[in-house]
Amino acid sequence: MKNVLSPHEKSQQFESPSESEFNALLSHYQSSKSEVAERLALAMTQKYPNVSFGWKVLGAVFRATGRLKEALIANENAAALAPKDPEAQSNLGVTLQDLNKLEEAEEKFRKAIAINPDFEGAHYNLGNVLKELDRLEEAEASYKQTIKLRPDYAQGHYKLGNVRKDLCQLEEAETSYKIAIALKPDYTQAHNNLGVTLQELGRLQEAKDSYRKAISLQPDFAQANSNLGNVLQELARFQEAEDSHRKAILLKPDFAQAHSNLGITLQELGRLQEAENSHRKAISLKPDFAQAHSNLGITLQELGRLQEAEDSHRKAISLKPDFAQAHSNLGNVLKELGRLQEAESSYKQAIAFRPGFAAVFNNLGNVVKDLGRLQEAESSYRKAIAIQPEHVEAYSNLGNTLKVLGRLVEAEASYIKAIELQPDYEGAQYNLAICYCEQGQYKQAAELFLKSKNFKNSQSYLLKCWYFLNEQSLFYEQLESLTSQGITDAIIGSFGCRAEIKFGIEIANPFCNNPLNYVFKTDLSKKYDFDKKFIKPSLALLNDAKLNNRSQNLLTNGLQTSGNLFALENILIDEIKKIIELEIENYRLHFNDSKEGLIKNWPDAYSLHGWLIRMKNGGALRPHMHENGWISGSIYINVPPKLNTNDGNLVVCIEDDAMLSESQNNIKNIIDVTTGTICLFPASLLHYTIPFESDEDRIVLAFDVIPKSNIKL
Questions:
Q1: Tag placement on the chain: N or C end, fewer CB within 10 Å?
Q2: pLDDT of 528-562, one tens digit each?
Q3: Element (H, E) at 19
Q4: Is 693 domain-assigned?
Q5: How many domains does the chain have?
Q6: Are 314 and 339 in contact (CB under 8 A)?
Q7: Does residue 418 fall inside a structural domain?
Q8: Closest among 322, 267, 260, 318 to 291, alpha carbons compared
Q9: How confident is the model over 220-270, as pLDDT tens digits?
Q10: Contact, 516 vs 652, CB < 8 A?
Q11: What is the pTM (predicted TM-score) of this model?
């Protein structure tokens, strides 16, 4: 509320202006004749310096014309001369608020209320200050008192709506805005903020209508145009969204928020360079615009410029340390950079500032799962679901974790729940299909792979399903389709070779026609201090209580670590990783002249995924392949002395022995392994181990080279 002016001084015991002098000054002020009012007020303060009314008018004129320091002096004089005048105290509070002296302003408003508890203007002004101080519950109480005293005050209902929105009381905020609009139908700002609230409630069509109403009432309302762009973007109407943001910028060229919002829309349209330019324009207009810095980071991440993206998010956080979304975005970049423990810290920081941030709990679950902490991952996904019961990605990720924990019935239920919530969610369809595949339910899996045919390597897995379902014609149709698309991976390579045995039809294999010729063995103990570089770090990891074991139904008398060892930020693991990367490059160079797709189409970028396996006496690993890999490998940390020639040895083969006739049983290699051996081979090969007898544990560090994306020829 504005300064309140009334001549309370008439009862004071000193010379005071006449009624005509009071009326003349008040009349000129109320008719907005500020120059005349200022001249008359100055004259009154000089003639009657002990009368507060002249100082009140002078303070109001100075404030209206932007002279806040002069307004402060005038209002201080008025308040001092009339300590029992609630309006004078409130006016002084308004000026102190303008000067950002919020605690002092609060004191004056409370003093005004103490003098007159029914002074709705002071309650309203106090609410404004408390909101600026981020004391939202107290601000809410002040606004409620305002509208209790004056139920028809539209602006009071509007401000109450703002506080309720900030307190995430969205339904209550909606009610407040609607009351404000009912009292004042042309209240454009209330229509706009109602739209913001409806958008947060997920009622996008209603939000769109509110923004359009605000714009129809005030066509040059830049904020409403930009907000309309935001909701159109959520409705996937990206071209219309772009038009709205550009309209906002046309109306207000220095509107930094609109430039950044335009950048978000341009990113959705795939115009990343234009998006970057828009975010940078927003930052040039408002260098301390934390949201724009973080939005720029998102675009830079999509452009693959991860270090710059990290810098942008860190800049946003330096400007606004409690910016939960920026901490989350930083976590996303750090995860992509492979710095998982730092990503975990960023996600936890985001949650500390915003405990109800469901998406971050989901992302945190992904990170701790990769770090091998499965129970923590499960807990994070369940928290995401508790906050947002329709969080389909969290249900799907929870299913993945439960599957690794061996709780297949629960995993299947979690995937199904995700699909029920979003029937076209290909990620959940794919994950459920993998679950069915692992249980040998190939018909159900095939149906889901067909539905999720554009997700990851669903088309390759469909080939696997047709193979096990003995659908020869469908198998070769699918293989031809994959080849015509130029897609190749280890699954295609494996089942291409296996089909030649099963169906008797020879066909060129885009991955590797003769994978047994590409098995490569080296003795690392001749190159390195094997005990220091490999044995001690591996034993330390196996004894680390934080590292969970995963369910592994292929393993007899043994345990396998969960997650990715190479995601751990550990100098000893980093050294092992460097050695493995060097051996992988030696492998590639050794076969460099090969025309096989395995070598010719070597992935431009890959990641390493590793885990440890510890077997006890009689332990063995059944035949399997690593379907997401390109090259698979194993380093033998400890191989017990062999009682028989092949005890504990590695077998690589085209097909599981159980699927072969006696005449075909020669298409395998038995690799003699000892402590210090590293063996690399195409991921398309099946492999297993021969049981051993010993009181010593057999320990292996296994790993895969995983391409960053599907390989196209």
A1: C
A2: 999 999 999 999 999 887 778 887 888 999 999 98
A3: helix 19-30
A4: yes
A5: 1
A6: no
A7: no
A8: 260
A9: 999 999 999 999 999 999 999 999 999 999 999 999 999 999 999 999 999
A10: yes
A11: 0.77
For residue 586, the domain's CATH number is 2.60.120.620
Give the 3-state secondary structure percentages of the chain, helix then strand then coil, rounded to 5: 60, 10, 30
Task: Write a three-state SS string for 258-299.
Answer: HHHHHHHHHHHCCCHHHHHHHHHHHHHHCCCCHHHHHHHHHH
In a domain, 509, yes or no: no
CA angle 692, 627, 611 (to 5 degrees): 50
Q: Tell me the C-alpha distance between 394 and 416, whole Å.
A: 12
687 neighbors 625 (Cβ within 8 angstroms): yes
Q: What band does 9 get if pLDDT is binned at 50, 70 and 90?
A: very low
Question: Between the CA atoms of 8, 10, 16 and 22, what dihedral angle is there, to the nearest 10 degrees?
Answer: 60
What's the pLDDT band for 11 if we cut at 50, 70, 90? very low
- Reported as a single tens digit per residue, the pLDDT across 641-659 is 999 999 999 999 999 877 6
Are β-strands 677-682 and 650-653 bridged in parallel, bridged antiparallel, or unpaired? unpaired
Maximum Cα–Cα distance across the chain: 124
Domain membership of residue 682 as a residue range: 517-712
Nearest to 299 by CA among 261, 244, 337: 261
C-beta separation of 493 from 510 below 8 A? yes
| Nearest alpha-carbon partner for 545 in 521, 561, 522 | 561
Token output for 31: 């008719």
What 3-state class would DSSP assign to 498? helix
Per residue in 362-399, pLDDT tens?
999 999 999 989 999 999 999 999 999 999 999 999 99
- Catalogue the E-assigned strands of 498-598: 520-523, 549-550, 555-561
Separation of alpha carbons 417 and 401, rounded Å: 15
Q: Is residue 314 part of a domain?
A: no
Residues 6+ apart with CB under 8 A from 356: 168, 387
Integer Cα distance of 116 and 120 in angstroms = 9
Contacts of 683 (CB under 8 A, 6+ apart): 490, 493, 625, 626, 627, 628, 629, 630, 631, 632, 704, 705
- Burial track 89-100 (b if 16+ CB lie within 10 A, e otherwise): bbbbbbbbbeee
